[in-house]
């Protein structure tokens, strides 16, 4: 009852927001307004049981509550399967959250064997195929929840699903399901599309992860190539056309390229073109930059998203006078909310050298980091969806369209909050720190991260990871030397001499 009440209130808020937005000529966007066809494929075999099946139904209700259920946004279908699949809720039948909750709660437990492949094929050929708005749907998502090994083949069915543009998440419950089968069911990479729960009693512990990943799939259409893998997010150097509008200059390492923004460089783009589906509830903002001269004393927005009426939807503001960093976002109760990071650590950001600034934004908290060191973490009130009919800008004086001259090497927004742990500041030379280790027991992995050409010699940047330490060095190789991980192996000895004693 409480869930239905909250969902009803949220639906009214979304409706009123849409009416106001339409009147004002602006539109809010985010996970709840994503245009999805979402199909749950739920194991109802004998191994589940009535009690645990009821827990699965509640989990589905909790996950779905982040979306606006309507013909304009997300439509939901539910398939229960055992020996045969049974369509419990047709796609788009229920056009409201409260109605959908009642329908999910009324699903009766099936019982039987575990024919997962057959259920997935049924979803592809009958449920997704029956969508009345196939041409308008931006995301076709399937979530398979199972606690046991399938008694039929799943690979062919999943290959067929992916061939038709359907993204599959696999949720394994308990210890009877095999990891290999979950991986074969889900899209790649498996660390994004495969989730585990110890049992049905604890399945709600992965609720936040499931919600975040469904949201990432809904609002983060682009990918960033990071260390031989793709991360969902927004490469703002490219999206904001910084690479074409600004002059390229040497970066923090000889292997890095940066861009010099001058007072005449206008970095402004339509938000619809940068964040067409809004922002995810959690994200990581990363900027590698250098503030020189008078720029280090000014107050300006390093990055900001503005509504059509110039109201801030999201912003990272640097205040050189008091050496602080401010994060601004929306609020459901106020016009906006701000968090000011006042500790001494941000002061080094204004010393004229290269630094990496990182903000980890979650639904109820924001944390700031400078060169991998935590500055501070603060609580956030619930946020509102952002308006997307305005502009997104970089390096603008607060309250004006005047550009502040800065040097910028990296500007990214990752959709996965865990990328905060993986995104180190190894490109900042001063971050390389001594450690203690045992030479004979060192397990070291080195990769050739990037290279540039200087004076007819290729400059290779090698990044090595060992004993939870990650750092990079650059060195030159002749043109005929192969650029690969092998090129980095000789650096192991150098690393041990530099960092071990």
Largest sheet: 9 strands, antiparallel
Determine the fraction of residues in helical runs and give it as a percent range.
10-25%
CATH evolutionary superfamily of the largest domain: von Willebrand factor, type A domain
Beta-strand content bin: 25-35%
CATH topology of the largest domain: Rossmann fold
Number of strands: 26
Structural class by helix and strand composition: alpha+beta
The general outline is: elongated
Instruction: Give the CATH architecture of the largest domain.
Output: 3-Layer(aba) Sandwich
- End-to-end C-alpha gap: 63 Å
Low-confidence stretches: 2-23, 433-460, 466-470, 477-493, 495-501
**Overall average pLDDT:** 83
The CATH class of the largest domain turns out to be Alpha Beta
Number of helices: 13
Radius of gyration: 25 Å
Count of domain modules: 3
Keywords: Collagen, Cytoplasm, Extracellular matrix, Hydroxylation, Repeat, Secreted, Signal
Subcellular location: Cytoplasm; Secreted, Extracellular space, Extracellular matrix
Protein name: Collagen alpha-1(XXI) chain
Family: Belongs to the fibril-associated collagens with interrupted helices (FACIT) family.
